[in-house]
Amino acid sequence: MQSGTFHTTYASDVSLRPYWPQRIRIVIVLALALIFPWFADRYWLNLANTIAIAAIGAIGLNILVGYTGQISIGHGGFLAVGAYTAGMMAVHLGAPMWITIPVASLFTAAVGAFFGLPSLRLKGLYLAIATLASQEIIIWVLTHGKLLGIGESLSLPRASNNLFGLPLDRLGNNDFAFYWVCLVALILTVIFVSNLFRTRAGRAFVAIRDQDIAAQVIGVDLFRYKLLAFATSSFFAGLAGALTAHYRGIISWERFTIDTSILFLAMIIIGGLGSVSGSIYGAAFMTLLPAFLSNLARALSDVVPNINSYLPYMQQGAFGLAIILFLIFEPEGIVKMWRNIKDYFRLWPFSY
Amino acid sequence: MDRIIQLALSGIANGAIFALVALGFVLIYKSSDVINFAQGELLLIGAYLTYAMVEQFGLWWPAGVVVAVALAAVVGVLIEQLVLRPLIGEPAISVIMVTIGLSSLLRAIVGAIWGVTPRPAPQFLPTDTVTILGANVGVDRIWAFGLAIALFALLTLFFRFSREGIAMRAVADDQQAALSMGISVKKVWAVAWAIAAITAAVGGILLMSIFGGVSGTIGRVGLLVFPVVILGGLDSIPGAIIGGLIIGLLQSFAGGLLPPEWGLGEVAPFIILLFILLVRPYGLFGQRIIERV
């Protein structure tokens, strides 16, 4: 375990994981991720897939909110755009998922850039309210989509779940097969986004977050980079939405209301704003919390007779309470708690 | 023509209720810069508390309403003390998220106590209709409009003449100056939340009476407060009133005159919202201090 920051070359200074304990940890996490599906049952595989998809969406939102500082309450709407684009391509064109998912992600990026236009004139609270409006407008388009030829809900043909001609059903059951799809998508997302913030565009995003006027003064084109941030963020929302569509097989607009937008905001707040790993922790926390509560309710159902009828309220209340408690006691999220734990052991037995 | 007058009158009545809810929202924003996403849940709490007082505890209805409104005010103050006080000085996203978390928590509590099935509301307002300019209008809507106006008048008097009201205006005007004049800003925030909870509770009770029942849909009105306050100006009380009436009329006409399968009544306020944000972000009456990028 390293006890401080010691770099002797520039290459090690700019590398993402400079220390061998960090590299070993990544190898262990990857190995666990590869072993996990062979031992887990469908319930746990389903949870893992949900977490992976949510993590992709949360990383996308974190690019916009955590790194670029533009508050968005419209992420659920962008997930819907991705899900419905993939769904309509699969239903009407019979396209397989390896075509629908990239196309849906790109299309969502374009829609996201369009709804990012108000960010050029608005910031902070006003932008948050503008994205709230775009959420409502997207859901309205979906629910009144007969005008545009969109149904309120779509069910995707099973045949569309194939990768380059290989039907996913051959790999095993739906949950097992999609575990690999989601895992690869998540790993690619993490690699892309971790490196994004070492590029020109990523640095520009962070500069806009920290001081937009100063960023403009040093030559960051606000118009271009804000739209780029909206587009990149929506790209991953579209990816998550398209994965959801193919994984669940049925999509309906109820999955993508403002509550979904709020759920994703809660994930990145609880996980940690401006942190890729934080987005994953937050997605895991927010997915496991309701699952834990329903298991708890099942375990207690003999002792407390009516507990199952209270379960939705327990989940909703726990969701709200988690947000409030995290904001009051640890505004920097799970990432900060994890760092505190590591610091404690790094310095142990001395406190400083 | 009758149809237009009818739509206009019902739009005005709804608009008066929106204005009431928006007023509480603006008060909180003016005094403490907090965007309150839990405004809809304050409506819900007011409505359900009244339902509980009148139907479940069997109080005479004016007494029940008074008790419910008082309890709602207590809830407002508690929220301010327990949840928002620790977040002073945190960035905007934290404050937004904490009110969002609060709305989720409050909805869960209301749901756990009263369930999701709509309950028949106690009828306070007369339900017959009268004919105005050839259009049939429910008397309950006229009552709702009248009560909302009366509450506005009361609040105007409060801000003009009472000690607390003047202190609130001072804090809204300049927090530093108010502090140095010996005004307790914390007390002002508590009063702002209490008034916001009261106006929301009254709005919730009026909606309950108009809908003839109490259910979670009352909380939906909380989202409509955003078009209202952005149209009127986020920090303007007259703006909240005018904005409420305009959005009420707009919703009524968009839902009633355009083909119903478009369902534009729901979304029209939000389209207007985006448009106003792009063209005139400070709204009709707001202060033009909004930071531009």
UniProtKB/TrEMBL annotation, chain A:
The keyword Transmembrane helix applies. Pfam families: BPD_transp_2. Keywords: Cell membrane, Membrane, Transmembrane, Transmembrane helix. It is a multi-pass membrane protein. InterPro entries: ABC_transp_permease, LivM-like. The chain crosses the membrane at residues 24-40, 46-65, 72-91, 97-117, 124-143, 177-197, 262-293, 313-329. It is found in: Cell membrane. One of its GO terms (cellular component) is plasma membrane. Signal peptide: none annotated. GO terms for molecular function: branched-chain amino acid transmembrane transporter activity. This is ABC transporter permease. The lineage of its organism: Bacteria, Bacillati, Chloroflexota, Chloroflexia, Chloroflexales.
TrEMBL record, chain B:
PANTHER family: ABC TRANSPORTER PERMEASE PROTEIN, BRANCHED-CHAIN AMINO ACID TRANSPORT SYSTEM PERMEASE PROTEIN LIVH. It comes from Chloroflexus islandicus. Belongs to the binding-protein-dependent transport system permease family. LivHM subfamily. Pfam families: BPD_transp_2 (PF02653). The chain crosses the membrane at residues 6-27, 59-79, 91-116, 142-159, 188-211, 217-234, 241-258, 264-285. One of its GO terms (biological process) is amino acid transport. The keyword Transport applies. CDD domains: TM_PBP1_LivH_like. One of its GO terms (molecular function) is transmembrane transporter activity. One of its GO terms (cellular component) is plasma membrane. Keywords: Amino-acid transport, Cell membrane, Membrane, Transmembrane, Transmembrane helix, Transport. This is ABC transporter permease. It is a multi-pass membrane protein. It comes from the Bacteria. The keyword Transport applies. It is found in: Cell membrane.
